[in-house]
Amino acid sequence: MANLIHTIQIYSFVKERPHLAKLKNFEKIIEFVKEFHLGDLNNFVLKNNFDLICSLKANEVCNIDLSQAPRFEDRDSLIKWFYSHLKN
């Protein structure tokens, strides 16, 4: 599981991507979560626009409801929200 410093570093890295400004909030969050996905990107699936299926822990599938996500620009809330999915 990612530690807080590592998570903040990845957030900062993703935030600096030039194309990010053109993306919708849920697309920005997908970019962020994708950095933590374990395994083949074929197993990183978005269903119904807001239901993300990915693998954040070894050998475990995680369903993330992106409709409940905070604004990407609110770093602290986003990281807290993200960690809540790592614990489940």
Short description:
With 88 residues, the chain is an alpha+beta fold. It has helices spanning 4-15, 25-34, 75-87, and strands at 45-47, 51-57, 60-65.
Give me the number of helical elements: 3
- Binned, the helix content reads 25-40%
Largest sheet: 3 strands, antiparallel
Query: Helix and strand string, N-terminal first?
Result: HHEEEH
**Strands side by side in the biggest sheet:** 1-2-3
Radius of gyration of CA atoms, rounded to a whole number: 12 Å
Give the distance, in angstroms, between the N- and C-terminal Cα atoms: 12 Å
Proportion of strand residues: 15-25%
Global morphology: globular
Sequence stretches where pLDDT stays below 50 over 5 or more residues: none
The secondary structure category is: alpha+beta
Task: Quote the average pLDDT.
Answer: 85
Summary keywords:
single chain, 88 residues, alpha+beta, three-stranded antiparallel β-sheet, globular
